[in-house]
Specification:
Elements: H1 3-29, H2 34-37, H3 49-72, H4 76-81, H5 83-107, H6 115-140, H7 144-156, H8 160-175, H9 179-204, H10 211-215
Helix pairs in contact: 1-3, 3-5, 5-6, 6-7, 6-9, 7-9, 8-9
Length: 218
């Protein structure tokens, strides 16, 4: 198994696992988000629970679609044999990203940790679509390697929720911080991680030698 395939298998295992967890937890185990909402104290505006929950369901659904469609488009086999599907799936990814950001925009004022956390989420909601648009511009101009690298950067933000909760856990268990403080640190820490990790991956993995041949007819 070459380096490209190893990266894809690892990404698939993490991505599929997280999708299953998000769907099961948010739609079956805790569909009313009671545990998460219990940390939202001292809100400055009233949270309309039915509306918030419906927005959350849409947010989770399109986050999972973005993760799945992005993963599919990293498949070398799809690039070689189903170029039209790759192209259409790419637009599904872009649309899903913007719907995730849109729904996040509604939930940001109610973020755990108050205004400080909200500011972090606003930064995420600016960075992710900008990176995604950059990737789209590069493929429209047939800049294959640049498109691939910017898609790696964009796809990393599909793991925002995972990164936040992982860092929250570390803050609580490793440093003894309370949940709200750990969560706020997790929001900002995730921005750093999700910008840094793709750069390490890009440096560690070389672009396929035949990338131009695969993409030239896209």
């Amino acid at each position: 198994m070459n380096k490209q395939n190893r990266w894809f298998v690892l990404l698939a295992v993490i991505g599929i696992g997280f999708i299953l967890y998000a769907l099961i937890y948010n739609y079956m185990i805790d569909p009313r988000a009671e545990q998460f909402l219990s940390y939202k104290t001292g809100l400055k505006r009233e949270l309309h629970l039915p509306v918030w929950l419906n927005v959350m369901y849409v947010h989770v659904a399109f986050a999972c679609i973005a993760m799945a469609s992005g993963l599919l488009n990293f498949s070398n086999r799809l690039l070689e044999k189903k170029r039209n599907l790759h192209r259409m799936n790419g637009y599904v990814y872009v649309l899903s990203v913007f719907l995730v950001v849109l729904t996040s925009g509604y939930m940001v004022p109610y973020a755990t940790g108050g205004k400080l956390s909200s500011m972090g989420f606003n930064e995420l909601n600016i960075i992710w679509p900008l990176i995604t648009i950059t990737a789209l511009v590069h493929i429209r101009k047939k800049r294959i390697v640049r498109h691939r690298n910017w898609m790696i950067r964009s796809y990393a933000f599909c793991f925002t929720n995972l990164a936040i909760h992982l860092l929250t856990f570390v803050g609580q268990q490793g440093f003894g911080l309370d949940y709200v403080t750990s969560y706020t640190c997790g929001v900002y820490g995730s921005i750093v991680l999700l910008l840094l990790i793709p750069e390490l991956i890009i440096r560690a993995s070389s672009a396929p030698k035949d990338a131009q041949r695969r993409f030239r007819n896209l």
